[in-house]
Structure formats: C-alpha cells, structure tokens
Amino acid sequence: MRCPIKVGNEAEVLVAYTTGTMTPAEQEAFELHMAECAGCRELAGAQKSVWGALDLWKLPPVSDEFDRKLHARIAEEARLPWWKRQWSTLSHLGFWFSWKPAIPVGVACAALVGAFVLHGPAMHPAMHNVAPGAAPAAVRSQQDAQKMDVDEVERALDDMDMLKQLDAPASAPARAPQGS
Amino acid sequence: MTALRFAAALMLAAGLLSVPAAAQPPGPPARWKQPGEPPSPIDQLERLRLMSPERRERFLDRLPPQRRANVERHLQNYIDMTDAQRARLREQYEVFRQLPPEKQQVFRNLFGRFMNQPPARQELMREEFQRLREMTPLERQKRLDSYEFHYRFQPNEREILGRLAMLLP
C-alpha cells in the first residue's frame, strides 16, 4: 500500500479506518502499512486518543437537592392555567437547552446531506430498476452478486496461483551450479 | 458520548466531502470508486473469501464441475494463507494486473515453460527470479549479463528468466 500521507489522502483513509468503512482488504493493507510507517501510526494513535478522551468525559453528579427541587417545580407549574403552562414551556430557555445534544447531530446530518447532494456519486442506473419496498441490504447483495464475475475471479485465482508458485520460498538448499 | 462521537464523525465526513475539487492536492485519483465502476478482481476475491459457505456455493454453481474444482482448490489455498501472505500476493497481483493484456499473456506462457523444467531447476530459477524481482532495472540487467548468471543457467532457463525479468516494473 502506498503511504496515505505521501499520497495526500490520509484524512480520508483515517476516517474510513476509524469508522470501519474500509473493505477488509483495505483495512488489512492499512494495518500492515502502519506497522512500518511511523507517521501513519502516529496519526491513527492521535485519532484513537481523541475518541478515548470522549469516553473519559464524565458528567457531573446530580445534586441531592435535585429531586426535591424538581418535584416542587412540577407542583408549582401544575397550579398554573393551561395556556400559561404552554407558553412557559415554549418560552423557557430549558425547552431549547433540552434539544442541545441533538443540535450538533442535526447540523452534521444536514451538512452531510448537503455535501452528498453536491459532491456525492450519481445514483447507479441499476438502482432505478429496484422493486419498490425492497430492503437496501437485499438490493446491495443482489448488486454484489450481479457485479461478481465468476470468470474474472477464476482468472485472478489462476494468476495468483502462478505468482505464488514463482514466489514460493525454496524448500531445499540451492543445488550446485549447472553450467551451459 | 455516542451522540457526540456520531456528530464528530459525520461532521468530519461532511467536511471532507465538501472540500472543493480544486482545493484537493494533486496526486492519484481518489480511493473511492466511481459510480457504476465494477469491483476489481481482488475485491471480488475478498468478498468470496468472506462469504458464507452457502453463498459461496451458490456463486460457484455457475461453473462447470472441472472448472469449479479448480477454483475451489485455488480459493482454499488463498483462504488458508496468513494475512501477511495474502497481502503480499495481492500486491504482486496488482503489479501483474498493471501489465497490458498481451504482456500478461507472455508472462503466463513463460510461466508454462518454467513449469516444464525439472523441479530442481525450477527451484533454482525461482530463487533467481526472487533476486531479480528485488533489483532495480539497471541491477537486473547487470545480473543477467553476469558471468555467474550464465554459469548457473542453461540457455532456455536464461531466456525464461530474462524475459520474465523484462516484464517486472
């Protein structure tokens, strides 16, 4: 495998590696390459440490007073007229803060959809022929099977067997020279 | 934490995807396949290796019995290799695949002639081919012209090795 840092696609390869979207062959090639390339190893290590740090982030413990204050507040709000309760819900900052964790996810999804629409691959013509309601996995599997060419696989295996035989390590010590 | 990770990964992916083509560094084409591009033989072979035995059976059913037996034998050899052996073989195959079809055929024909040599001579030739493979083109030519090479190999062996070496990158 050519070094992704030298090729210039290290970010792409690293994202594919950490998110597990590489094919097994690509992953294996990258791991073998990392064993020899300090730069790639360092990059992968840095990425792992970021993910590790996210794992270590602990939320502060809930105070003992929390339950009591919460129940008091619920009781207080229950005494208000219904329209005031609705308005309070909508206008209260807490309403918006409760959605806070979802906001980055939503923005990221929107960005991803936008990027895909602008730069993503065009839909494969075969996809248009898929029966409505067919499961995506089944469609993929059907396409995979269609795309696999048994003759090509056979030829590749024959050629690889040939290369393997030329590459096989010597099983016996070298014979004495035989002149012409 | 999961949501944060998910968001971080999505944003990173979106950022990468939305980089304009002009801003990307020059170099070989992107690793991602173009739409409609068929999978390479290596990808197909890897899928076959990782398939469930039932699906593999169904796929191999398309072949007549003799060819099927041949494919099954080669496939089993491939599956039985270690990861490192498979990676090395895949690399060699990719180099071979870069050759134009007519040169690939020349290589196959030379291999056929190599296989017709007695086993002891095959082993000696194999060692020599390994050595030639590790050399630069200049070193290779020097080796082919060397007295030692002429002393060790008969004319037909020299021809096979020399022509195979010419096909190496």
Can you give a write-up of this model?
The complex is a heterodimer of chains A (180) and B (169). With 180 residues, chain A is mainly α. Among the domains of chain A are: 1-56, no CATH class; 82-122, no CATH class. Chain A has helices spanning 4-7, 10-18, 24-36, 38-56, 66-78, 82-91, 93-97, 102-119, 136-147, 150-167. In chain A, helix 3 (24-36) crosses helix 4 (38-56). Chain B has 169 residues and is mainly α. Chain B folds into two domains: 40-98, no CATH class; 100-166, no CATH class. Chain B has helices at 2-17, 41-50, 53-60, 65-80, 83-98, 101-115, 119-134, 137-145, 147-152, 155-166. The radius of gyration of chain B is 23 Å and the shape is elongated. Chain B starts with a helix and ends with a helix. At the A-B interface, helix 2, helix 3, helix 4, helix 8 and helix 9 of A face helix 1, helix 2, helix 4, helix 5 and helix 6 of B.
Number of E strands of chain B: 0
The DSSP helix count of chain A reads 10
The helix/strand series of chain B, from N terminus to C terminus, equals HHHHHHHHHH
Largest sheet of chain A: none
Put simply, the count of helices of chain B is 10
Helix content of chain A: 55-70%
Q: How many β-strand runs of chain A?
A: 0
Largest sheet of chain B: none
Q: So what's the overall shape of chain A?
A: elongated
